[in-house]
Amino acid sequence: MHTVLITGANRGLGLEFVRQYAEKGWQVLACCRSPQSAEALKALANSHSNIELLPLDVTDEGQIQALAAQLQGRAIDHLLLNAGVLGEQCADLGSMTQAEWLKVLNINTVAPALLIQALRDNVAASELKTIAALSTRVASIDDNGSGGMYSYRASKAALNQILVSAARNLAEQGVKTVALHPGWVQTDMGGSNATFTPQESVAGMISVISNLGEDESGSFRVFDGSTIPW
Ligand code: NDP
């Protein structure tokens, strides 16, 4: 049986990843800040014995280390770094503050780097050896025609660099990485007017992750499989 670990598993795309992997029969390590109050996730876990709930605030380094210790020796086939924030308070010239910048960078950039560091041996010990992180098209410098979204764009562009470095550094162990753009999706972050449902976006992303070739490690992909320029 394959295993997936998902951060931010309590709502939005994370919750849909949990649902789809659980229905495929995978062992699902569903991480979120407060498992005890994650009602939708708990309901899913009640009907699927292959879902384990684990506490993880991705900005808490102690919790990352505790998670790694708890999972020592367990293989993780797909490591899904999904948790993220939009940083609306730090989107425009005029509203930015240091505190908000650091909060966004901590969640969107530093946490995925520390999680890759903490769990890389688990991924390397698995059969499928793949790390995927939720990036966004607006992280593409080529795509930045409108400006704004300062902390979100920058934090996810830095995340993309982390994924490329990890692709290079972990290639010897057979570990692959991919940065994913999920499309504009109907979640709390995307809003109800967004183009895609979580179901179609997540189904597409699972297909991209599952079919990632070794020569495609360190690439930046849309949920439909197309590539985004950096
Ligand atoms: P949501 O806002 O719906 O969900 C965000 C998730 O991240 C929640 O589970 C939230 O948990 C979690 N999270 C935030 N901060 C932390 C933290 N410190 N520790 C642990 N978990 C945390 O967003 P989406 O589901 O839409 O987005 C998921 C990912 O996809 C994000 O990385 C986002 O940037 C990316 N993305 C989304 C797009 C969209 O259109 N929806 C477009 C492009 C990219 P909690 O409930 O505890 O806050």
Helices, strands, pairings?
Elements: E1 3-6, H1 12-23, E2 27-32, H2 39-47, E3 51-55, H3 61-70, E4 78-81, H4 98-124, E5 130-134, H5 150-170, E6 176-181, H6 198-210, E7 219-222
Parallel strand pairs: 1-2, 1-4, 2-3, 4-5, 5-6, 6-7
Helix pairs in contact: 1-6, 3-4, 4-5
GO molecular function, one term: oxidoreductase activity, acting on the CH-OH group of donors, NAD or NADP as acceptor
Pfam family, one: adh_short
Protein name: NAD(P)-dependent dehydrogenase, short-chain alcohol dehydrogenase family
Describe the protein in words.
With 230 residues, this protein is of the alpha/beta class. It has one domain: 3-Layer(aba) Sandwich (Rossmann fold). It has 6 helices and 7 strands, in the order βαβαβαβαβαβαβ. The chain has helices at 12-23, 39-47, 61-70, 98-124, 150-170, 198-210, and strands at 3-6, 27-32, 51-55, 78-81, 130-134, 176-181, 219-222. Strands 3-2-1-4-5-6-7 form a 7-stranded parallel beta sheet, sandwiched between helices. Helix 2 (39-47) links the parallel strand 2 (27-32) and strand 3 (51-55). Helix 3 packs parallel to helix 4. The protein is globular and about 50 Å long. The site of NADPH dihydro-nicotinamide-adenine-dinucleotide phosphate (NDP) has 28 residues, from helix 1.
